[in-house]
Write a structure and sequence with these properties.
With 254 residues, the protein is α/β, with parallel strands linked by helices. Helices cover 33% and strands 25% of the residues. Strand 6 and strand 7 form a beta hairpin. The chain has an eight-stranded mixed β-sheet, sandwiched between helices. A two-stranded antiparallel ribbon has the order 1-2. It starts with a strand and ends in a 13-residue tail after the last helix. The C terminus is likely disordered. The chain has a single domain, classed as PAC-like subunit (Rossmann fold, 3-Layer(aba) Sandwich). It contains seven helices and twelve strands.
């Protein structure tokens, strides 16, 4: 998949397939790093809890030269996991793509989703929230739908819709492209404290996924209990990634 980079040079986002899988009429979750890393935390929890398998990897010359090592195995920094019996796929990455890659990545994900015959994309995002670290105030969950069908799904799930605001990055492009193509794209947004991994807000996103995808009901409380461990792990990743990142690694936590 090609996009336009700086100076009108083409940017290629390659999808490398490891396994064939039938996802017809399924759901795709998009989880690139966001405020409080809520998308990465919630999607990692979903992948491990639901025991999804990696089926594809995303690669580009513009991605950082990083290999993510899990259980002794190297992984591409941007990957697709899926489980056929749940009709579910998850795009996940631990690195924040540079701004010039937002459109090419979003269009590649949308094209792949439509090629698989899936019926919708749900983006997992964070909204900046003010307040001290560890606040007891429950995070708010809101949603945005690209078309009438998406907005009706939010209503059916009892998720309030964002009246006014701005959604940037891959999620923002997906919403715009979904509206243009009349394809069902939903952005779920949980209020998150920006400067540290917010597992409480991530758990709120998991609750939102439960409402929209009742076939995969998951308990979110264990995710909150893992908050301290997740924070230490992501801080380690942040330090290890510094030499390979072309943009400040601190963006992983913004």
């Amino acid at each position: 998949m090609l996009g336009e980079g700086g100076g009108n040079l083409p940017i290629e986002i390659e999808i490398r397939k490891f396994k064939n899988i039938n996802l017809s009429n399924g759901t795709v979750l998009e989880a690139f790093p966001s405020v409080g890393l809520v998308s990465t935390i919630s999607s990692s929890y979903l992948i491990s809890t639901l025991e999804l398998d990696q089926i594809c990897a995303l690669e580009s010359e513009d991605f950082p030269p990083i290999s993510m090592v899990y259980s002794t195995k190297p992984k591409f920094p941007a990957r697709i996991y899926a489980r056929e019996d749940l009709n579910l796929a998850i795009f996940i990455s631990e690195f924040p793509p540079p701004t010039k890659l937002h459109r090419p990545i979003a269009k590649t994900l949308l094209s792949w989703t439509m090629d698989q015959g899936c019926r919708r994309i749900i983006s997992l995002e964070g909204l900046p929230k003010s307040g001290p670290k560890g606040t007891d105030q429950e995070p708010e969950l809101v949603g945005v739908g690209s078309n009438k069908a998406a907005r009706e799904e939010l209503d059916k799930g009892g998720i309030p819709q964002l009246e006014v605001g701005m959604i940037s990055g891959v999620s923002g492009v997906l919403l715009n492209e979904g509206r243009w193509d009349n394809f069902n794209v939903i952005s779920l947004l949980a209020e998150a404290i920006p400067d540290f991994p917010d597992a409480y807000a991530a758990a709120k996103l998991v609750e939102g996924v439960n409402r929209l995808v009742p076939e995969i009901e998951i308990e979110s409380k264990p995710l909150v209990k893992q908050a301290a461990e997740m924070e230490r792990y992501l801080e380690t990743l942040k330090e290890q990634a510094k030499p390979a990142m072309s943009e400040p690694v601190v963006r992983m936590f913004q």
